[in-house]
Fold:
Amino acid sequence: MKNFKIINNSIGWAVFGIATVVYWITMEDTASFWDCGEFIAVSYKLMVPHPPGAPFFLLMGRMFSFFALGDVENVSYAINLISVFSSGFTILFLFWTIVLLAMKFVKAEEGEYGAGQIVSLMSAGVIGSLAYTFSDSFWFSAVEAEVYAMSSFFTAFVFWAILKWEYIEDESMSNKWIILITYMMGLSIGVHLLNLVTIPALGLIYYFKKYPKVSKQGLLATLAVSGGIILIVMYAIIPGIPSIAGSFEVVFVNSFGLPFGSGIIFFGILFIGALVYGIMYSQKHGKIILNTVLLGFTFILIGYASYGLVVVRSNFDPPIDENNPENVVSFVSYLKREQYGNRPLIYGNVFTADRTGVERGEGIYRKRGDKYEVFDYKTTAKYNDNMILPRIYSQQPGHPELYREWIGLNEGEKPTFRDNISYMMRYQFGHMYFRYFLWNFAGRESDDKEATWLTPFDTDENLPESIANNKGRSNFYMLPLILGLLGAFFHLKKDTPIFWTVMLLFFLTGLGLVLYLNSPPTEPRERDYIYVGSFYAFCIWIGFGALAIGEALEKVLKNKVTASVIAGAICLAVPGVMAANGWDNHDRSNRYHSVDQAKNTLSSCAPNAILFTGGDNDTFPLWYVQDVEGFRTDVRVIVLSYFSTDWYINQMRRKVYESEPIPMTITTENYLQGKNDYVPLVESTERPLNAKTYIKLVNEDNPQILVPLQGGDYTAKLPSKSFYLDIDKSKVLQMDNFVPKAKKERVQERMIWQLRPGASHVFKNELALLDLIVSNEWERPIYFNNTSANTLNMDLRDYLQLEGLAFRLMPIKSENTSDVGEVNTEVMLKNIEKFAFRGLDDPDAYHDEEYRKFGSNTRNSFYRLAEALFLEGKAEEAEKVLDNALKNIPDYSIPYTFFTARYAELYHKMGKHEKANGIVEILSRRATQNIEYMIETGYQNNDLRQTSLITMQQMMLIYRRLERVASVRIDRFENELLLTEEPGELEIKIEKAKADQELFLEKAEEFNAQFSTLLDRLEGSLR
Structure:
């Protein structure tokens, strides 16, 4: 047995080494999109991320950041290594878990394992753990600074630890392992709550050891107790203890007149004292179970204590301090993620229900003076149409339409419970779980959002290049799925109780989570990373699949060693195929555009600017480059959605780095939560409102602009849907480098703008924006990125000037009504010289959908600059801009989209037909291939179909426009010819224009015919 332990440990560490090296090689070099930029920034300076936080991850991130050795550009690389090593250790413990589980039915002979048995056990462990190593979803999280890799480590550790505990006979030592498990669970709370879902599986293993005679009553009791433990941790411990402490605090401060913090201190002394007394009592009276429970509870709290970091750091007002949880009241709200609202789980409304009223709940407190005051109440909306297990509940814009699409419901029809369950089965179970499951163990069609899975018959032959060249396409030929299913049936046969334990883990971390999360009908990104615990459990069965094949071969070969070696060699092909086919779309080395686009955006802003952003990927990379690399910290980044909260507005009133506080007129009092959150349009005049006067009236709580709310409170209203702002034109013109020379005459004396058509309100963020614009008086440049510019209800787009990747608010009305604002060519030409495009020229670098989107948006901004230059008569500069854009953002890294067709149009206008034809040929070829493929195979992809048809339509429209332009030029030249005595040059121009007209007309007719034919054939195939 000693030799077996050495072999087991050695091979386990070898698998750890393989996984760790793979993840290190394929790791992202810098901050990836989504939450990674935020997590790296808040780890580096121990700040406060979005609720409910991940303080233990931040502490580990801070420690890993030291390995950057003072080089801020290496901080992201160092913190990414947390996920690399966490994932490597996950694979190590998975290997040992598979071996421990297999040892339950692969028994040692006379206390010693033979060579054949050792080979079988090691093969199972290697194959199962390597399959998980190269699984799509786990590999994705293993190479970036996110919490899911570390969360997987804790899950793997506690499941392995309970199996180790099962083999320990000494009760004292086994209790120590239970306490270790509870401590690790406590630590995991400071990373992610996924670990708690393993508790029922751990409970079954405990039950099987302690009660060899299994009964239905015992199983049900075990599951009930396990479920109770989850509820205790999730509700009684995590938010419950701080909530009780908060109640003590309110009573001590408000009722007893004691200072802030007195209630917390009293509760802490009382709680810790009771816990210490209980432990001492249990030891003194020999109550082992009570002692173990209390110690386990204590160690959960010790691990959970990492959350103290959140409150401590929030009190130091760091640059990133989301929700400002600096006291127990705000901390509880932070833990409960109250800003995100709730989803009904057991009973609730359907999406067609009408709201019948609102039920007031408990009060919401905040610090005010020397007391805590109730400033609002938690409310629960009441509806007239409810059902149990509500899955189709969301009434957010666009969601009802998607629900109807998924369940086949016509407009005006009310859904039934059957429709509700149909949606759950088709979308939540099918689309949001089994599709992900099959990505990992069958194959993935592409990395496009909503991509489906592959079968062994989905070959790469005769594919359109847009699909064939997608690096996210990975076909595993269902080999992992088949081996895993074989292993599951084998496990059921060999060890039924533990099979159901693994099955419970598989279910709870998969479909169980689906039921709990109750996904809406659309998500901003794919959510497969949530279910890696379920995929972890399935990889245990993949390992057992090797045992099943080995046992079958042994019956034929009559030799255990030979059968085990052959089975291991055959099954090793499964993770081999997964590694080979999945490598290119998991290798994130040499891609930097997430960070470069953030720097390019900041480089688009003038000194001391204020920049509004819209979403996560617009913002988190900016936070990273400012808070970690110290890049352009003079720019104040404001997240438009956060600007609706009082805590965020207050933070904007502080100086951060080189950025001074933003100027605002309305007092903090009038921005408190619950006041002016929603400002309705109650139109009483068609005349525009004076923006300065309106802000003054809001600040004074003037009755002229107030309307009553339910409960007796008041909010500001909008008496008109139009605003105006008078401009001190002489002051603006005297400001250095503010107005481009060519546009000085266009400076307005009065800006006038309106709400967007159909808008009936603004929220606090737009009220605050209006306040900022009025109070700023053009002292600081105000910018919007593309997302924020297009999501405001106050339509300021006519007064925006594109200066790179950001639009500057200017008192100049745009003369271009077809796009957002117009281009400040003078400034943008200087700004783009500072832009970086690292890695985009590397054909081997993998740029997924999000990178492609941002690259395409950047290319579109370059087009707008080139077009503006061309209209200014600067054709050579325009051509240079287009050429540089296509060189820096090449098609092989960021494939052309239908927007790129405008490049061809502009090239044609400049007479650069060869360059234009190159783009047109690529776009038309891909669009035609896509449609032909759909017609011939019946392949369904709405996005691909629409973009392909739009591309063909764009080509047709472009050449029709070009033909008209050529016709106008011919008429102009011919008129000029009548007035000149030297016709030679004009005659040449006329001939050239006629040749262009003929070319464009021919192309327009060609694309019109192609478009019509393909559309007819496609519609015919769909019928």
